[in-house]
Amino acid sequence: MTTPAIHASGLRKSFRATDGTTVVAVDDVDLTIEPGEIVAFLGPNGAGKTTTVDMLLGLTAPDAGTIEVYGTSPAEAVRAGRVSAVMQTGGLLNDFTVAETVRAIAALHGRPDRVGLVLERTGLTGLANRRVEACSGGEQQRLKFALALVPDPDLVILDEPTTGMDVGARQEFWQTMRADAALGRTIVFATHYLAEADEFAERTVLMNRGRIVHDAATSDVRAAYGGRTLTFRPPAEVVGADGIDAAWLARVRDALAPLGISDLEVSAASLEAAFLALTQENDDDLIGAAR
Ligand SMILES: Nc1ncnc2c1ncn2[C@@H]1O[C@H](COP(=O)(O)OP(=O)(O)OP(=O)(O)O)[C@@H](O)[C@H]1O
């Protein structure tokens, strides 16, 4: 049996808020991730994604529960170079160039041989001599990803890596990630963006209020909860500038009526519908935050 990349059981973490109340950030989370999986942690603000990621990386100690990363403690796995992270904020020195940054981290890891390769993998070779402060937000995140790849880790954990990027930069970032994941690395990422889970992750772990409310193949999440909506493509000749020809739609409704179908709506099934359904079951109040 292979050792799981991550095996966490009964994880709990609470914080004391400034008003003296206790916030349960992570509440009894069990999670096993096998080597080679690509997993999205999806959830609204405050769901507990970052706290979970911090515990997986050994940055925060759980109040209760156990975590093993490749059969050892998270801190040991990080020290051994088996796990790397791309965090939301900070971590880069503005005065360094891209290449100097990668060289400095490679020296720390004793892997100067990896500099050229990781620059190339992350599409940064052409920007090697650009100062960090002159790089766009997307380029800086790619640089962080390059740094994470220096020790050639088995597992990369990314905490909302594309926050603040425009659509183009996000796509570029994920293209880089996708190319790397194809080489067999295990990837776990936290995101607010449903589209990112949908496009990139084979498995989606949906968190809300510190708990895992759903954990399944991303396609199953959609099928189970968003799949109630019927969609189809009408023939081109009935679609005009104002939408679908009303008479044609009426014929469709008449044809479906004998099948017991009513209130037919033409709208795309989406992971968003699944997400809203799942978090609604868990807590109505947080739906606004998820949008
Ligand atoms: N250091 C801390 N002190 C007090 N409360 C905290 C601390 N860290 C997290 N929390 C609280 O724990 C809960 C979970 O936060 P966490 O950052 O893990 O959620 P998240 O899903 O990553 O949210 P976001 O998407 O907004 O980053 C929130 O209510 C947050 O306010």
TrEMBL record:
<dbReference type="Pfam" id="PF00005">
    <property type="entry name" value="ABC_tran"/>
</dbReference>
<dbReference type="InterPro" id="IPR017871">
    <property type="entry name" value="ABC_transporter-like_CS"/>
</dbReference>
<keyword id="KW-0813">Transport</keyword>
<dbReference type="InterPro" id="IPR050763">
    <property type="entry name" value="ABC_transporter_ATP-binding"/>
</dbReference>
<feature type="domain" description="ABC transporter">
    <location>
        <begin position="6"/>
        <end position="234"/>
    </location>
</feature>
<dbReference type="InterPro" id="IPR027417">
    <property type="entry name" value="P-loop_NTPase"/>
</dbReference>
<dbReference type="GO" id="GO:0005524">
    <property type="term" value="F:ATP binding"/>
</dbReference>
<dbReference type="InterPro" id="IPR003439">
    <property type="entry name" value="ABC_transporter-like_ATP-bd"/>
</dbReference>
<protein>
    <submittedName>
        <fullName>ABC transporter ATP-binding protein</fullName>
    </submittedName>
</protein>
<dbReference type="InterPro" id="IPR003593">
    <property type="entry name" value="AAA+_ATPase"/>
</dbReference>
<keyword id="KW-0067">ATP-binding</keyword>
<keyword id="KW-0046">Antibiotic resistance</keyword>
<keyword id="KW-0547">Nucleotide-binding</keyword>
